[in-house]
């Protein structure tokens, strides 16, 4: 008898779009996931990441990488051992109490996450600022959205995106800047595609240093040089002023400070801006005219603006443009910051950052501090701003902060300047990591590991980019000894209160919570009368009526779709403020020694550090291995061909990577996806510099940060690219039991440090076969015993293995068969046979007819054998080679070819994430196949 099926509504745990999902379970495990057709963020649609969420929650995977019970060590020279919750929390409370007594409350710190729920965030914020008395609590949202926060506050008066997703449907011009929306926010991009179909007059402008899939679809693409956004926006405003496209009546009635800004933008002539930004004057003029003359212009922006040492200036310069042209406070118009993480908004709402307080209150405002103290029944809350992300880890490295508690984030992958971060984690007297996954790089530094619940097990609320709050319930009970993030913080707070006493005026606990609803109700009370007032909401209402937008004050019948339609702003004067900003160059300009601008960004099918998406083999099929993308001309001038290994080196670190041709960027720029950290990409560096360890892309990125938002310049670093002379290669790929695949990948990680370069990724599809691929390179053949150890981990050992060995040349080929099918292959020295052996393995094709060719190093590949290539459509497993075959044989006009592909191969008919790439392929000349 089949177990009964249950369905639970939740949200996707990836980007800030906040898509509703329906989780299907059998009471024991997640059996499926689909989009929630009733959720107003996505109306049932999911992207390639969201549609595979159920695969990340399978027991076979969970038991390999989930943190399921507390672990602790009191001696850093010893491994962590299992411990009880009571013993762990007691030890933590003892260490905190002693450290605070000896060094003060600012000697401890918390680094939390935009993937926490609002209730989790609220409790951690209260723990730090209320009980301990330190503002040393910051979040990985500092790396994501803090420049947007500062930009909104400086201009509009509050951290409140004034727009909504529905504005996409009403816009006449959409200006996308600093965002590859097609990859980073795919469901919103589907909505843009729909808007274009419904309104053929809609114009799309994209400003980006790279010609991304988003940019390729634009009516006007501005290929600006990295970091020149302020010059672009000021130049557009200059043109709007010159051509009388500004709204002088609106400026006079609802804004202040325009006269000073007007004097500044006089100097941003088309000729000057064209030279600074590297774009044609005609394109600049067209962009300004479309923006200013439109009845409704909507800007969508993300990390390209925010992750910069001048990130706040970039945000306010764009908002200045909206205010001057009255492109705000009406349907289809406004500056819309697209949130990167699923609940970065919720963290901002509860003040879960080093310089904020609950309900958008300012730490520097005495009245705001007094309001929070009264709410929490405290005599006061600390006034000194805490350390923000980069500052925080620098303070740990210098010994000012003794204890750091990291929750639901992976700074040993995501923070810039990884050498600094790892030195800090080694220096700290106590490192506490609260995590759902044991596989993250940060867990290796943990003295205490606290096992937390994950998506499908949690309960609470999140707020998406359009200020919409969704409540969801757990689909499954917590596994093992895991606890909810808020519960861990509350349990610790009680243990700490027992040692240092309750500091409330009434003498009662600061943490009287037994449920998430109690926490949320307290958060709700803190918002009364504020710009984000949610006093009219309740858990019951959210359950009855579904997700709601704030503000939703008591007595309201609904939330507010868009803000400032009356021209009133939450500033002292009630007017929006123009901020006079001038263009500043990137923090680290390129020079003769470091002549390339490194840009980082997202892959279509991966998420952040890949602790979750990295468990799903099929999500590697679109971009299977790490690479640095480079302009074809730059490659030719350096005698590089696709697949060559290169050193990418900044002033902070280096990483060896294969180079690939990138036709999406101009000369002088290189691109590496932000996701590749030590978990998948590492090495010890070249043999002549054994201490120059590689930690992935963020070994090279820049910790310089914006003085207003404290957000680091992750988007740009000056680097040099030199060919890596590493002639010896090693490659292993094999089918692995799904119950062991992630454990194997984790076990291989220490071995990767023995090579100058190494990467380890997955391939295949869950349910059809999952494989592990390890690739390595060095300047000389590795020790035989090292290779034997690695091959044994793939079960390539024993007398039944087919072997060819040429020890003199360092070449070997070791093959394991399962009947007449390849199951595992190890290649040393000459790895060229990968081109035909891996397709045989992946296709499950019989090798009986190959005979001795399997082991002959000089044998030619069998006729007709070729790799399927990249999987373009992940949902339906459609490969690039199959798409090209159909297009090569198609006589249809370009505009009909997409429909032909969708009919014949079904690609692009499910989640739609591959549609932009399909459109690009349709327009390319197709050689005969």
From TrEMBL:
Protein name: Molybdopterin-dependent oxidoreductase
Alphabetical keyword list: 4Fe-4S, Iron, Iron-sulfur, Metal-binding, Molybdenum, Nitrate assimilation, Oxidoreductase
Family in the record: Belongs to the prokaryotic molybdopterin-containing oxidoreductase family. NasA/NapA/NarB subfamily.
Signal sequence, renumbered to the chain: none
Cofactor: Mo-bis(molybdopterin guanine dinucleotide); [4Fe-4S] cluster
PANTHER family found in the cross-reference section: NADPH-FE(3+) OXIDOREDUCTASE SUBUNIT ALPHA, RESPIRATORY NITRATE REDUCTASE
Ranges where the 4Fe-4S Mo/W bis-MGD-type domain occurs: 5-61
Domain of life: Bacteria
């Amino acid at each position: 008898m089949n177990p009964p099926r249950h369905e639970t509504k939740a949200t996707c745990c990836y980007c800030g779009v906040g898509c509703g999902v329906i989780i299907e379970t059998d009471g024991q495990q997640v059996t499926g996931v689909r989009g929630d057709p009733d959720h107003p963020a996505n109306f049932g649609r999911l992207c390639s990441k969201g549609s595979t969420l159920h695969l990340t929650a399978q027991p076979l995977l969970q038991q390999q990488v989930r943190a399921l019970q507390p672990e602790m060590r009191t001696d850093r020279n010893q491994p962590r051992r299992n411990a009880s919750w009571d013993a762990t929390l007691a030890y933590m409370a003892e260490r905190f109490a002693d450290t605070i007594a000896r060094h003060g409350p600012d000697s401890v710190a918390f680094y939390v996450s935009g993937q926490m729920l609002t209730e989790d965030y609220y409790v951690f914020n209260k723990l730090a600022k209320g009980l301990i008395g330190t503002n040393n609590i910051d979040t990985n949202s500092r790396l994501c959205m803090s420049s947007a926060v500062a930009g909104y506050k400086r201009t509009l008066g509050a951290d409140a995106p004034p727009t909504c997703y529905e504005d996409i449907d009403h816009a006449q011009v959409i200006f996308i800047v600093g965002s590859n929306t097609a990859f980073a926010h795919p469901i919103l991009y589907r909505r843009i595609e729909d808007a274009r179909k419904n309104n053929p007059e809609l114009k799309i402008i994209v400003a980006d240093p790279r010609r991304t899939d988003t940019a390729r679809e634009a009516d006007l693409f501005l290929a600006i040089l990295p970091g020149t956004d302020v010059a672009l926006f000021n130049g557009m405003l200059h043109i709007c002023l010159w051509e009388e496209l500004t709204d002088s009546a609106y400026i006079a009635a609802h804004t202040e400070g325009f006269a000073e800004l007007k004097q500044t933008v006089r100097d941003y002539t088309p000729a000057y801006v064209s030279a600074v930004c590297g774009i044609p004057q005609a394109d600049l003029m067209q962009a300004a005219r479309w923006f200013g003359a439109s009845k409704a212009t909507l800007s969508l922006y993300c990390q390209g603006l925010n992750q910069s040492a001048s990130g706040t200036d970039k945000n306010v310069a764009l908002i200045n443009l909206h205010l001057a042209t009255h492109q705000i406070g009406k349907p289809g118009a406004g500056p819309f910051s697209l949130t990167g993480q699923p609940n970065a908004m919720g963290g901002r709402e509860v003040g879960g950052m080093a310089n904020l307080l609950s309900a958008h209150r300012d730490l520097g405002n005495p009245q705001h501090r007094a309001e929070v103290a009264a709410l929490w029944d405290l005599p006061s809350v600390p006034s000194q701003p805490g350390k923000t992300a980069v500052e925080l880890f620098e303070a740990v490295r210098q010994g000012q902060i003794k204890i750091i508690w990291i929750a639901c984030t992976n700074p040993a992958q995501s923070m810039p300047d990884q050498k600094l971060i790892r030195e800090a984690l080694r220096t700290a007297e106590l490192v506490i990591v609260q995590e759902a996954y044991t596989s993250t790089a940060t867990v290796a530094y943990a003295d205490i590991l606290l096992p937390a619940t994950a998506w499908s097990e949690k309960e609470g609320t999140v707020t998406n980019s359009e200020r919409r709050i969704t409540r969801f319930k757990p689909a499954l009970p917590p596994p093992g000894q895991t606890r909810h993030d808020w519960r861990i913080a509350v349990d610790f707070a009680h243990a700490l209160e027992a040692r240092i006493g309750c500091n409330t005026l009434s003498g009662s606990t600061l943490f009287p919570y037994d449920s998430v609803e109690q926490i949320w109700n307290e958060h709700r009370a803190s918002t009364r009368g504020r710009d984000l007032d949610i006093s009219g909401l309740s858990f019951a209402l959210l359950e009855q009526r579904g997700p709601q937008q704030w503000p939703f004050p008591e007595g309201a019948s609904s939330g507010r779709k868009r803000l400032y339609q009356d021209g009133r702003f939450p500033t002292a004067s009630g007017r929006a403020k123009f901020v006079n900003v001038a263009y500043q160059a990137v923090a680290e300009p390129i020079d003769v020694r470091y002549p390339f601008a490194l840009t980082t960004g997202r892959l279509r099918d991966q998420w952040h550090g890949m602790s979750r998406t990295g468990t799903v083999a099929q999500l590697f099929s679109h971009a299977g291995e790490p690479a640095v993308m480079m302009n074809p001309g730059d490659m030719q001038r350096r005698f590089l061909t696709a697949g060559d290994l290169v050193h990418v080196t900044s002033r902070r670190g280096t990483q060896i990577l294969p180079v690939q041709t990138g036709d999406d960027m101009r000369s002088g720029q290189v691109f590496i996806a932000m996701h590749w950290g030590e978990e998948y990409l590492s090495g010890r560096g070249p043999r002549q510099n054994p201490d120059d360890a590689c930690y992935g892309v963020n070994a090279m990125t820049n910790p310089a940060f914006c003085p207003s938002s404290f957000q680091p310049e992750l988007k740009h670093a000056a680097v040099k690219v030199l060919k890596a002379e590493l002639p010896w290669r090693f490659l292993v790929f094999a089918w692995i039991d799904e119950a062991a695949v992630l454990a194997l990948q984790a076990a291989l990680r220490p071995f990767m440090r023995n090579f100058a370069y190494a990467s380890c990724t997955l391939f295949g599809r869950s349910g059809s076969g999952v494989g592990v691929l390890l690739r390595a390179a060095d300047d000389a053949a590795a020790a035989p015993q090292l290779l034997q150890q690695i091959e044994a981990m793939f079960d390539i050992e024993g007398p039944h293995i087919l072997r060819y060995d040429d020890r003199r040349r360092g070449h070997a080929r070791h093959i394991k068969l399962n009947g007449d099918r390849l199951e595992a292959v190890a290649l040393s020295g000459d790895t060229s046979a990968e081109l035909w052996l891996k397709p045989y393995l992946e296709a499950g094709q019989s090798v009986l007819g190959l005979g001795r060719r399997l082991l002959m190093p000089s044998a030619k590949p069998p006729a007709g054998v070729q790799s399927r290539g990249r999987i373009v459509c992940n949902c339906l497993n459609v490969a690039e080679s199959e798409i090209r075959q159909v297009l090569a044989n198609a006589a249809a006009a370009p505009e009909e070819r997409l429909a032909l592909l969708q009919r014949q191969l079904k690609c692009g008919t499910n989640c739609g994430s591959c549609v932009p790439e399909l459109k690009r392929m349709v327009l390319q000349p197709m050689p005969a196949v």
